[in-house]
Amino acid sequence: MKRSELAAALRRERADMVRFCGELDEAEWRVPSRAASWRVQDVVAHLGSGCRAVFTPALLTIMRTDDIERTNDLFVDQRREWPSARVFADYKMWSRCLVVVSTALAGTPRGRLPLPLGELGRFPAGMLLSGAMLFDHHTHLRFDIAPALDRRIPDTDPARMAGVLDWMFAVLSNQLKSAETHWFSYPLDIVLGGPGGGVWRVHPDGMVGTGRAGGAAAATVEGRADEFPEWATGRAPWRDRSVRIRGDADYAIRFLDGVNVV
Predict the structure, then answer these.
(1) Model pLDDT for residues 139-167, shown as the tens digit of each residue
(2) pTM greater than 0.85
(3) What DSSP letter does each residue of 46-111 carry, written as one string?
């Protein structure tokens, strides 16, 4: 996916978040979200703090952490007592700044500069800014906020789904490379249907590529692109979603049970 398209996808995702949150009343801001221990306003505070960190020394904390989820909790804790209006204003300001920077970066060689993101590994700067935040917005809004409020889940589009999946498979690749999964000795294919979907081959060395190059896979996991961010992040069991296995079922199940893309 081109970096300019990824930045544009983030801009549209931010617009959906601003529109959605702008309709909330005070009681809804304080409803427990489906993200453990976070209210709706805490989720938005998390997104705002992540955008703000790009422009402050907090970025170094995120880059160097060995527990990205704990770091996120610490940033949210600093905003627990903020009124919802301040949380929303902070989010709108810093997310707008991030969109501007990610759009500008997309057209420069600096977008290819590898940067660390805690224990998740290194990523090109353009993907880190646009892809990580697109994934965060998309996943939190559709699986943590909207369902908790019993509100309609906003529509997405193929480009946004493709950007979310690109980020997730980049993280999954780094996770597999750093894990000592000696049992994972044969390729496995993941086929996701619907907008933004495609075919990804997961190799024993942790590399994840598009397509089926390199011969037959030991197993194929089939599912829906729009469901993948939910079950692959552990928000729902993969067995409760539209996931099918072809080939070596035991091999695929062992892989699926270990997937947890942060």
Answers:
(1) 999 999 999 999 999 999 999 999 999 99
(2) yes
(3) HHHHHHHHTTSTHHHHHHH-S-HHHHHHHHHHTTTTS-HHHHHHHHHHHHHHHHHHHHHHHTSGGG
